[in-house]
Amino acid sequence: MYRTHHCSALRASDISSTVTLSGWVASRRDHGGVLFIDLRDREGLTQVVFRPEENAEVAAAAQHLRGEDVIQVTGRVAARLAGTENGKLDTGAIEVVATALIVLSKADVPPFPIDDDVANEDLRLAYRYLDLRRPALLNNLRQRHRIVKIVRDYLDDAGFLEVETPVLSKSTPEGARDYLVPSRLHPGCFYALPQAPQQYKQLLMVAGLDKYFQIARCFRDEDLRADRQPEFTQVDIEASFIHRDDLLALMEGLFVRLFQQVLGRGIPAQFERMTYQDALNRFGSDRPDTRFGLELTDVGDIFSASEFKVFRGALDSKGVVKALNAKGFACITTGQIEDLTNMARQYGAKGLAFIKVENGGWKSPIVKFFSEQEKAALTQRLGIEEGDLVLFGADKWEIVCEVLGRIRLRVAEIQKLLEGNTDLNFLWVVDFPLLQFSPEEGRWAAVHHPFTRPKDEDRSLLECGDYAAIRAEAYDVVLNGVEIGGGSIRIHESDLQARMFDALGVSAEQQEAMFGHILKAFRFGAPPHGGIALGLDRLVMLMLGAESIREVIAFPKNNRGQDLMSKSPAPVEPRQLRELHIQPRAAKPE
Q: Domain boundaries in the chain?
């Protein structure tokens, strides 16, 4: 056998035993002819000692070992000398005195030290198989495995069946751009890689499976960032004869179990619930971070008759005026104010009005336009005190919420409001808008997806065309300002689904071409149903405190969508393209 134990298994109780270990040379230290090797495998480290007096031939052979060589060692377990124990290692009380050595594989010099943090992420990704040898990344994958196992066990206990759905499916408009796969057997036709198993899981409900889940691979051709990859994994869940509150309670139980068993941390059995409207009004975000204050406050009524044209103009145009009070932040520098102003412009504002309260006075170019009554009302509503910084937004409601929401997060970062914060603030954001008008496309679009159910009390608004006021039976779960999952109660009636498509500007012919299969299925008796999808990569990232989902995925793409290790995407042979009936066009010169 290659080994009798893993490299983390031996303890003082094994002293005098003869053992065989296999693994990688993690480090070597030569102490005057006595060689010490830290041998590493997936489970940990064991110190191995090569002494000439024990076996001169083996000790001599060991002198040729280098880092990352793969070896097999047989030897006697011995206690470390007093004072040389390593309390940081599980095997720190013992060492293995080698009596036999077999070199299983020699290693080139690695492009970076395996035991150090490497700043160059592209280099790490190019040699990901070496990067994964680092204990931190290895632990991330181990914990991801535990998280997935707990999810599976929890849903199995709740009566859910794990069912796989197709990866090659049909391209339908569901938000992001599809990855397309050309068909060799059907020239000019394409499969699409699934952005989510949305239609399939609803069809499983029509089929009567009642409770389904899947650890599903999903694909979206969209811009990348730290918590987004072109291919990702979600915990996909759907159930029949279920109301929103049933689903939310199910998920709360899952999170309680996950955080207790993986992190040893208790979380509330019920999460706070906040409407979409309230989340935007108070925090400027539909995924609010509630670990700190800096809430947005509407001050429009204070300036309804103001002489300040910027505020008055926004209100006369049926916009809003909102403010946030950054307590104690009047010390902000001119450069920081400029950065915040540029950020405001980036997200649609024309500028950023502010007041600094210093030395008993209000310092701002806009203060001269305020009446004493307006200043008094503002002071009372915002609790303005010496040392405060008040920031304003005046524009359309959506723009003001977006801009001040971004500013709020940036101010919290500058003020280090979350430094050392270990809170776990879960909340549900509910009652999203069902539809949102897209000026670019000149039509209404689904905020989530076209299968989301309108709230029953708002269905009449769908019939009369008051689309902006319709709320959806949709919900997102948010942890510390990061959306980790979202779902909805679905439309299960074919006539209501067709009416939803009408509102989206999808003609009857287009409905039949793109969604005929699911509309037909609904005509054969579909149960009321709903579900949710959790972003597994994002959830694991948050639970483990990683900075990017790339740290919890074995072989991620970089921020340009490239696999630097296998050098993909890559050109293919012309023969392959001919078989797929594809004729590439030459790239236009820049």
A: 12-105, 138-274+427-552, 292-420
